[in-house]
Design brief:
Blueprint (H helix, E strand, L loop, with lengths): L4 H12 L2 E10 L9 E9 L2 E5 L8 H6 L4 E4 L2 H10 L6 E4 H7 L7 H9 L19 H12 L1 H14 L3 H13 L22 H21 L3 H4 L2 H10 L4 H5 L10 H16 L21 H4 L1 H21 L3 H4 L2 H9 L6 H10 L4 H16 L4
Parallel strand pairs: 1-4, 4-5
Antiparallel strand pairs: 1-2, 2-3
Helix pairs in contact: 4-7, 5-7, 9-11, 9-13, 15-17, 15-19, 18-19
Length: about 375
Amino acid sequence: MITDEASLAEVIAAFAAGSGPVAVDAERASGYRYGQRAYLVQLRREGAGSALIDPVACPDLSALGDMLSDVEWVLHAATQDLPCLREIGMTPTRLFDTELAGRLAGFPRVGLGAMVEGVLGFVLEKGHSAVDWSTRPLPEPWLRYAALDVELLVDLRDALEKELDRQGKLDWARQEFDAIASAPPPEPRKDPWRRTSGMHKVRRRRQLGVVRELWQTRDQLARRRDVSPGKVLSDAAIVEAALALPVNVHALSALNGFGHRMGRRQLEQWQAAVDRARALSESQLPQPGQQVAGPPPPRAWADKDPAAAARLSAARSAVSALAEKLNMPQENLIAPDAVRRVCWEPPAADREAVAGALAGYGARPWQVEQVAPVLTTALTDPAG
């Protein structure tokens, strides 16, 4: 594993002298550490071999990223790895996503192991996907497992390119890859505490305030200790406390998730968060529903706008039939949110207007070309 600047410089020189695309992968420590930082970066390129780089010891890989900026990167499920790679200075300008290619080509299973076995006939070693990659030193079997993730990635890319070309979908795939490579970093999520698992049980604003206070306290502790928030306090425990609104530490300790293993000091800090929420004025409490731009949830359409509900039903059926015909998942044919928005506030009932609306919602040209005709029909004649 590359752990110093001198060895990293040798890797950069070797990969600069290589040829063809570069296979790239990253390992995170999800479930163990705070955030989604990379704890291992794997690379492979023809003429350069494979390299495993420790981004803890070498936190700035921008020189490597710059050297590879004009090279096509081959990744599997690129959107999962690009954020942590971007943090250490590695951002591609061109890429090939083998998972997305598999989806577009209609493969029923698109995990890396399934794709390598189904397309290339090799079986990858399994067993270390969920380990704590922040462990140092990393055991030899883990490193071997990680190296295998890029061993055949370029071969898989080449085979999938041929299959996409055979199906007439290669240009579609390239448009998708370009969209991923050119997408800006995602905006920080507003009110991330609202994504606490089990939130559907929490109805009252005071209870929402407890969820928010406990979530924020947990997040601060997890960040400071560099551990996964779930290891500090479970989502289930947060919701339990919100529903119960305990008045003191004794009442809190009787709840699931705050049992006898939790020390008095920990219990006091959680109770303090509950007390802060209990002391908030009505104006300081969060609103029940997060304000979301765009149409309401589809389940409410029948009551709010029956005509829109009919349009959505027809559109979904049409998109489903087209996706089946094209042998790909519906969500890869067109984003469900784009379909909902077009159906909720339909443009003029002609193909050009529908195409413009889809493009405005981020659909790629190939998606517009395929979907606009069937959506136009669904909007103009929802009853069929």
